[in-house]
Write a structure and sequence with these properties.
Strand order of the largest sheet of chain A: 16-15-20-19-18-17
Number of helices of chain A: 5
Number of domains of chain A: 1
Shape of chain A: globular
Strand content of chain A: 25-35%
Number of strands of chain A: 40
Bound molecules: pyrroloquinoline quinone
Oligomer: homodimer
CATH class of chain A: Mainly Beta
CATH topology of chain A: Methanol Dehydrogenase, Chain A
Largest sheet of chain A: 6 strands, mixed
Distance between the termini of chain A: 20 Å
Radius of gyration of chain A: 22 Å
CATH superfamily of chain A: Quinoprotein alcohol dehydrogenase-like superfamily
Helix content of chain A: under 10%
């Protein structure tokens, strides 16, 4: 009750359509949704509680808004004061909608981008959304142009070019505004680009630092003495030593996912993508720091610690999924944690100050490429997966043109970029999963700038019955994981992968979307379904909530797409297209067609 | 109550997803929406009354469905048994949705059409919807391919080519299935095509007859002795005599609007479009039978009677708007009537058996090109408009390259194709109007097959304040017109033209959509607004209602477009583009973006 009042008061203070309030202030107000991830910690938990277990069943549509663009609509709207900011996939149109007038358009910004950019986007034309701070809206376009727009007018304040789409450098990620810096990633792992994380000055767009994820220490902003991995200094040229020759130059490992920030430690956390190519035989070594969690000092960019989940990736297990920062007791001791549900099927919890690995548990029971993660600090293989050679696609260098069957999870991971939520009330993580396995056949490729540098053929299919769910054909779930132990508490099966981001609220409700297009609300404690609504198209967006004029709303973007929805989104029909996703998800065509619609819900 | 029960019973009888019930049977069941126009009479009145004045305020969204296509979504879904059939604008995708499973896709049909067809569509890529009879779904594609699909499976049963898009012959209209015949029109007036109405055999697609709207009597299926106009035989070569030379060959006058049918008289009613070009100086004469109502014998195609609303059109006043067939008393005598709200600003009521003109009243008070229609049967100018020479764009052959200002209505008419509804309870017509005027400058054009043959530059703008509404800037209204007198009873002003078709129900509610995207419900008696909902995009679709499992639903397509919405739909920004519509409706960009979404409403 007190919280709700605070929200109303703060909202009332925010005069006019957009305000110049700072992001930390806005995040502190549960009435706003000021950052894609809900908060710097990426918990996607809202303290709003008007909509709760008892009344969510009566939720109804308040209004809808078509974005004018089709294909995968990832991310979600921001709410700052009386204004909602909505983005679209390529060409990345931005709308400022007036919440006082049911979403009338205050301004729109339509960047002109070369359509050839679409051809170098690996996994649909998605964009995971805008960011805001101090009166500026930050747009990171598909073609890697970073633009700061005046939140009141849509006027361009500054704009910089972060990469080169001709080489395959593109963007799908949101940016992170933190203490005057803008943290910016990019994509292109499937095109063999050399990836980096960059900090720009929020006010001017001036570049402050850039940290590559492969290559010499100086490029990577790694200090061999102070940058640690699992508690020990990484040593000199930790990346160079893990690649053959200069393969690190075309080694991918893009930070195309999410960013977290700990204001006290002043550390930015993010994950890096798969090493290029997907043919592991072509790139001996651990391929550092691909598939890794990296903690960097916001001010200098220097890496504090790194941890590689999947050394020498043989399965396309990008490590970019979100890092959720929580404070919990582990073994009776309160700790500052970082939890990360990786594509490789393991959920990792680390001490986020030190990078110490505390928990690593399978959150998809089908996971078979590794039986466990070595958690013994005394072991030589501390932190490394205990591999099952049956599912190696490298096969000690003999794997080329051989098909390895039945690998779980499939390349799109037990979880992809669609973010989980954490509720401090239930102390559960709510993880949107893929329950998908694969056959994988690596083949040799040569690098040509701007051309696909993939090197593997895949077949994707549901995990076998009995490995998580009794029914056959289950391709995903909403899985609740105990925050303190990493153990699965319950899991709700879904016909298709859950490709939408989850929202947990103080009302005891967890929301998520399905590829068929349902927005669902379940009981945060038990997972019992409380409500569902069939939106216009498949949901790959992330559910958000906000309050306006004292009333709580829930909002979500519909629009089938992303890797799982690429068949419908791009009109592909060959089952092997989209690296096997077209075949695996062809059943989706029974449920949905392309779209691009925001739906806003309210209580009657 | 009896009606609702009958509906439930009939619905229960209709086994499986689609049935082979005949169209008249389905129309008799108010639970179905079996024909675009609601019934053969085009009343768009439903006898369903679950949703009524008292509860419509609680209407909420039941489910939504994105069609996967953007641009103007005209027409509406059909409901046959447990299946809803949804169409899209070009490329005219057809979906069969399972109403028992919240709109799961039973089948989809995606025609392959040459995108160059889009270039010869004058007024957006719209399509006014599917038709059904005896187990077949009839699709008339933009490229004039007429396809009969198995309603259960989507399999093509037959397909014929009705015209040639290379010449500019395209289609936007629905077809009319009547007594085993399929009545088929087409478009292309702005490309100087020679237009016709064609009847095909429903079962086989064999062509039964074709009636041109200009040219020799034999081509027109006019019998100079028995075909009448205002009660008198039209005489030999009534069309040829009204054109100079062979201009009738490129004279347009397309039947691109709606079709009505009187089963007792076995007559089909429809209107013809504007004569080509828009430059009246280039085509002296009355230009028959452009801008006319034509009644044809269904079996033979022979014209029973004709009536030309706007002889020698100087303003682009196509006569294609729907013909609403009612039985009402006029001057104490019950009569079989045909009422038609024309683009030219007059609402006409005729005896539909004889073609006698009974009423002609302005339904937009701004109308100024003519002061009245001569209703004196004894007069030499009986049935002709009483012109105001100030607003002539021909200016006795001197009008070329002269701008005539302040003509009302503008070229898109006081009402365009968006259909009105009639309630037998209130005996009111509910007319969606444009309250728009224009400046018109004709210029000389030469005909080239497949090239625009327009010949006029327009500026469109709201009618002046005080000519209907006190507020300035009003561009449309929902206008209630007394069925027996043709007088306006009330009119609800709208900021923009009402470009959606109206639905009237036995619940005493009238529904219509707005270009901003609102679906509105008003009291059928008083016009008082009872409810509104902001759909995903501007509404140019027609509101429908049906019942399923004993519950009444209201459905409407959103998707800005049509002539009024062409700026947004086609991404045009030059105010003079779209024959002036881009400038006139540029304010729309504040409210909506492109879309293609079906929204289905229900009571809680
Ligand atoms: O390595 C890369 O650069 C890169 C980029 C992206 C992207 O930018 O969307 C994806 C992936 N990889 C990827 O592996 C992947 O599974 C994936 C899924 C999606 C999506 O949005 O659904 N993007 C991406
Ligand atoms: O003369 C023709 O052939 C023709 C065709 C069409 C059409 O097919 O949509 C329109 C018109 N004319 C026309 O004059 C007009 O105002 C118009 C509006 C619309 C629409 O759907 O919004 N179509 C058409």
């Amino acid at each position: 009750m007190r919280l709700r009042l605070a929200a109303v008061l703060l909202s009332a203070m925010l005069a006019g359509p957009a305000t110049a309030a700072s992001l930390p202030e806005l995040i502190a107000d549960p009435g706003q949704w000021a950052i894609q991830t809900g908060d710097f910690q990426n918990t996607r938990h809202s303290r709003l509680d008007q909509i709760d277990r008892s009344n969510v069943g009566r939720l109804k549509v308040a209004w809808t808004f078509s974005t004018g663009v089709l294909r995968g609509h990832e991310g979600g709207p921001l709410v700052i004061g009386d204004v909602m900011y909505v983005h679209t996939p390529f060409p990345n149109v931005v709308y400022a909608l007036d919440l006082n007038r049911e979403g009338e358009i205050l301004w729109r910004y339509e960047p002109k981008q070369d359509p050839s950019t679409i051809e170098v986007m690996c996994c649909d034309t998605v964009y995971r959304g805008l960011a805001y701070d101090d009166g500026l809206i930050f747009l990171h376009q598909a073609d890697t142009t970073v633009v700061a727009l005046d939140a009141k007018t849509g006027a361009v304040r500054w704009s910089v070019t972060n990469g080169d789409p001709e080489k395959g450098e593109v963007n799908t990620a949101t940016v992170l505004p933190a203490r005057g810096r803008l943290i910016v990633g990019h994509a292109g792992g499937e095109f063999g680009v050399r990836c980096h994380l960059t900090a720009y000055d929020q006010k001017t767009g001036a570049r402050l630092w850039r940290a590559y994820t492969t290559g010499p220490d100086t490029d990577m902003l790694i200090d061999p003495a102070t940058t640690t991995s699992l508690g020990k200094p990484v040593g000199t040229e930790s990346s160079l030593a893990s690649w053959e020759g200069d393969q690190w130059q075309i080694g991918g490992a893009c930070p195309w996912g999410w960013f977290s920030y700990d204001p006290d430690l002043d550390l930015v956390y993010y994950g890096t993508g798969n090493p290029a190519t997907w043919n592991p035989v072509q790139r001996p070594g651990d391929n550092r720091w691909s598939n890794s969690i990296i903690a960097r000092d916001l001010a200098t960019g220097v890496a504090r610690w790194v941890y590689q989940m999947t050394p020498h990736d043989e399965w396309d297990y990008d490590g970019v999924n979100e890092m959720i920062l929580t404070e919990q007791e582990i073994g009776g001791t309160p700790r500052k944690l970082l939890t990360h549900f990786d594509r490789n099927g393991f959920g990792y919890t680390l001490d986020r100050a030190t990078g110490e690995l505390l928990i690593a548990e399978k959150f998809d029971p089908a996971t078979n490429w590794a039986s466990a993660i070595d958690l013994d600090p005394a072991s030589e293989t501390y932190g490394r997966p205990v591999l099952d050679p049956t599912y190696s696609t490298d096969q000690d260098g003999m794997g080329e043109d051989m098909t390895t069957e039945g690998i779980c999870p499939g390349a799109l991971g037990a979880k992809n970029q669609q973010p989980a939520a954490f509720s401090p009330q239930t102390k559960l993580f709510y993880v949107p999963t893929n329950h998908v396995c694969m056959d994988y056949e690596p083949f040799r490729v040569t690098y040509t700038a701007g051309q696909p540098y993939v090197g593997a053929t895949l077949r994707l299919y549901p995990a076998p019955a009995g490995q998580g769910f009794e029914e056959p054909g289950i391709m995903g779930s909403l899985t609740a994981v105990d925050g303190a132990t990493g153990k699965v508490v319950w899991a709700l099966p879904e016909r298709f992968s859950v490709w939408s981001g989850v929202l947990a609220t103080a009302g005891g409700v967890v929301f998520y979307g399905t590829l068929e297009g349902y927005l669902k609300a379940v009981d945060a404690a038990t997972g019992k379904e409380l409500w569902r609504f069939r939106t216009a198209s498949g949901i790959v967006g992330n559910v958000t909530t906000y309050s306006h004029a004292g009333k709580q709303y829930v909002a979500v973007l519909s629009g089938i797409g992303g890797w799982a929805g690429i068949g419908l989104a791009a009109g592909l029909t060959d089952p092997s297209d989209g690296s096997g996703a077209v075949g695996a998800y062809e059943g989706l065509a029974k449920y949905t067609a392309n779209g691009g619609v925001l739906t806003v819900f309210e209580l009657p």
